[in-house]
Write a structure and sequence with these properties.
The chain is an all-alpha fold and 229 residues long. The chain starts with 8 loop residues before the first helix and ends with a helix.
């Protein structure tokens, strides 16, 4: 029998039926390829030509947390396997941030966002930045994650739907952060890293539960409902 990965067959069947194609499941849970985690979200935004329901403030806080983890890991010379997905998540999150601005009619602001972010990233990873600053950023990850996810949860609640949020991407972020709790303990032994992923798992779980709750609600459905009242 082929290896089905770390998930029990029942849960695997549920994921393949409702949330993701088998190729996506294999890449994430068998090959641990995190490059595609936010790709479904990017494709959904491009396909809809809309970023409705996504909070740019949440994206900025996500970037702060992801960048902090990446810089902290590099500064402490952790193995790439323990933080490599942060690099791919960062690149994909930056793209999503630009698309939010672009589809909101603020393309110029989107380009400014890209230039400023990568300039700050270069400065952060340079020898000029003290290690204490990088460590402080990693410590701030937890409140950044909590504030960012609660902000997105509040946006979903106010809208009464999750807009263009991708169920696949949200679930993969949730599952990935759960997996990273154990891999960070095994590969780095760093309590701060592990605790960050615990908080991230809980916050991503809230958003995923909202997607399930608002499954049959959509921006179009809400607009039609308002017109009929």
């Amino acid at each position: 029998m082929a290896d089905q990965g770390p998930l029990v067959p029942g849960l695997r069947g549920l994921l393949l039926t409702y949330f993701m194609p088998e190729s996506c499941y294999d890449e994430f849970f068998l090959h641990f390829n995190f490059l595609d985690v936010k790709l479904p979200q990017i494709l959904k935004l491009i396909g809809a030509q809309s970023a409705e329901g996504l909070s740019f403030q949440t994206i900025l806080l996500e970037l702060l947390a992801i960048t902090g983890t990446m810089a902290y890991s590099i500064a402490n010379q952790f193995p790439f396997s323990s933080w490599g997905e942060a690099l791919f998540l960062m690149l994909q999150t930056v793209v999503i941030g630009f698309l939010i601005q672009h589809y909101g009619g603020r393309t110029t602001r989107g380009f400014v966002f890209l230039v400023v972010y990568f300039a700050l990233l270069a400065l952060l990873l340079s020898p000029v930045t003290p290690v204490s600053v990088v460590t402080s950023m990693q410590a701030f990850n937890m409140p950044a994650i909590i504030i960012g996810r609660l902000n997105q949860a509040g946006t979903n609640f106010r809208n009464g739907h999750t807009g263009q949020l991708s169920a696949i991407s949200v679930f993969l972020l949730f599952a990935g952060s759960l997996a990273r709790i154990f891999t960070s303990i095994q590969e780095t032994g760093d309590t701060l890293m592990a605790l960050t992923f615990v908080i991230s798992s809980a916050c991503n779980g809230i958003i995923f539960l909202q997607i399930l709750y608002y499954w049959n609600s959509s921006p179009k459905h809400k607009k039609n409902k308002k017109k009929s009242q």
